[in-house]
Amino acid sequence: MSAPQRVLSGIQPTSASFHLGNYLGAVKQWVALQDEHEVFYFLADLHSLTLEPPEPAALTQRSRQAAAQLIAAGVDPERSAIFLQSHVAGHTQLTWVLECLTGYGEAGRMTQFKDKAARGALDRVSVGLFTYPILQAADILIYQAHLVPVGDDQRQHIELTRNLAQRFNGRYGETFVVPEAFTPPSAARILDLQDPTSKMSKSLPDAGTLNLLDPASALVKKIKRATTDSETEIRYDPKTKPGVSNLLAILSAVTGDPIDGLVAGFAGQGYGALKTAVADAVAAFAEPFAKRVTELMADPAELDRILAAGADRARPVAERTVADVYTKVGFVPPLSRSV
Description:
The chain is mainly alpha-helical. The chain has 12 helices and 5 strands. The longest helix has 30 residues, at about 300-330.
């Protein structure tokens, strides 16, 4: 019997709450993947410094809160290694070697860097933002991951990771598994409520983002104010009716009901009925999720124990990869010292 394929993914603890897009587009898929795969899920606290670094106390709180939200969503620490990126030194150790294999122009062509850099003055863009795709490649390659769950906006990063793995393997011999991007067919792409042509994101104004730890009243208010169109018919047509289609996609993803059936059920009704149904469904989902997160956050020592245990599972895998890489590039191995 062949060993299960290894899956690696991460999420940044850059905000106090996951939003609905995070959950439906990523975390829900992570929960399903742990049934048949060996999974490593990390909280990318190193990546959280690439833009405006958060206050230290806020980063500590958000890191624990992100762990609590993964568990509340159904990620099982017994079946999945949940850990902090900063707890495994190999991530940064491998990054330097990969940076030295990456061309300046290659790094400069990364779309997310260009987009984010364009929003501010160049002298305020950190070197970390420029090089973070190489750290992301190290995050993946260090665990010899076969599959990496990603959205369409991350595929360029996976291609860079694959290129670096193949480049290293070609120069130094077979070392890295060349990973595949994995997008489950059931993954929902949730769009911003105010700008339904853009993916729901923490970087967009809060009015269009459904934060799962927000009170039900705030979620309902945002959904009631969601952008629709000047028509009255409820139908699924992402090109000409992106706002209405987004609401239908949210309702379908939260309830499990197919979109065609939902459209038929709303025949003859207006957008108000659709928004009410979406608001009720999202609030019904978010309330127990937020309650469970609150329970978990009440015991930070237990969350730290879970994160430490996850790092203990991840670290030996990472250390083996780094040792192999360092030997192959010619670094003199350190002498063992007895204590």
